[in-house]
Amino acid sequence: MKPETCPLCHSTATVFCTKPKHLFYKCSQCDGIFRPKHTYFDRDTEKQHYEQHENDVNDLGYQNFVWPIVEAIIKDFTTTHKGLDFGSGTGPVISKLLTEKDYSVVNYDLFFENIPERLLQQYDFISCCEVMEHFHHPLQEFELLHSMLFPHGKLYCKTEVYRNQSPFENWYYKNDLTHVFIYQEATLHWLQKKVPFKKLDIRDKIIVFEK
Q: What SUPFAM superfamilies does the annotation carry (predicted)?
């Protein structure tokens, strides 16, 4: 197989996983693990895939799943601050839970709430829950997110970081065909320095970047 170029740092990469339907490469520089571009869904197919997700904002299981982000925002910011849920999807549960506590939050989603002017504003906090693994152009996306934060603003991300918790070919998280870029801890540190963010806090369930 020919060498692939990392979509995050544009360095060379080598084959990492060849399980059927799940060809991944690993970057020699940032340690990112990614699918080759020719395997990506087209935009219509990707949207149809997301429409199948059962993201009911009133489902307690779904609320509990996003709660680590909501809890962190409540701890770090007050209702006087302004936020954005980036990649809010078909069920914007984070903004629902925060607005119920009188926080000011708007949504943006490429497929379901595509309001470009919201990307031209700045926010005190941005949530990005189970979104960053879908980025086709991860550096470009993180630079955009950085630009939308006020100084000392925070970006709260939730994704599964690969830490060799199981052999990659058996790891459930890579089975979603729209999960095109998988992060390792070294990848996150590379991102922090490159973008750059002043701070990076890799917690048990969330990742927090500070501008």
A: S-adenosyl-L-methionine-dependent methyltransferases (SSF53335)
Q: Are 24 and 35 in contact (CB under 8 A)?
A: yes
Local mean pLDDT, 10-residue blocks, the chain (211 residues): 86 91 94 95 88 73 90 97 94 93 96 95 97 97 98 97 92 94 98 97 95 97
Contact 125, 156 (CB under 8 A): yes
Q: Are 125 and 83 in contact (CB under 8 A)?
A: yes
The structure's pTM equals 0.94
Q: Report all structural domains of the chain as residue ranges with CATH numbers, in order of start.
A: 41-210 (3.40.50.150)
Give the C-alpha separation, 89 to 53, whole Å. Answer: 9
